[in-house]
User: Fold this.
Amino acid sequence: MKTLILVSVAFFMVNYVSAQKIKESDVPKNVVSAFQAKFKGAKVKKWEKEKDKFEVEFDFNKNEMSADFSADGKLLESEQEIKTSELSKTITDYITKNYAGYKLGEAAKIMGADGKISFEAEVSKGKEKMDLIFDDKGNFIKKNVEPQDKKEDKD
Assistant:
């Protein structure tokens, strides 16, 4: 029983500390500068530090976005929220066929640092939530399952 409790506490702590909200003043200046240069005029909502990268959520040209930067200021990827209706028919057909009973929630267009485009579709059924990742042609790549006890920070 003690082992189960310790494992549960360890799992919680790893998930809890994996992404922490931080003040912009705690973000390395080169990361803030790289962000400002890439997204001139963006309005920052929040910064987070996750392991060795920095994530910023922001509004840019009337779009909700996020971007990940390495500690040395290199843009790793950016993500733009899109309407679920903007997902290709290939993607929505895949979800309908393979995730019957799941509700399609949010969608995003992901731009990799290498210029590659992919798409993310969030699906849920009850408390189960997962992100499905597709390439630019709508081919399924992978799924990321969110822990059921994870609560999104709405700050």
Observations:
- The radius of gyration is 17 Å.
- Strands lie at 20-22, 43-50, 53-60, 63-70, 75-82, 103-112, 117-125, 128-135, 140-146.
- Confidence is low (pLDDT under 50) at residues 1-17.
- Residues 2-18 form the longest helix (17 residues).
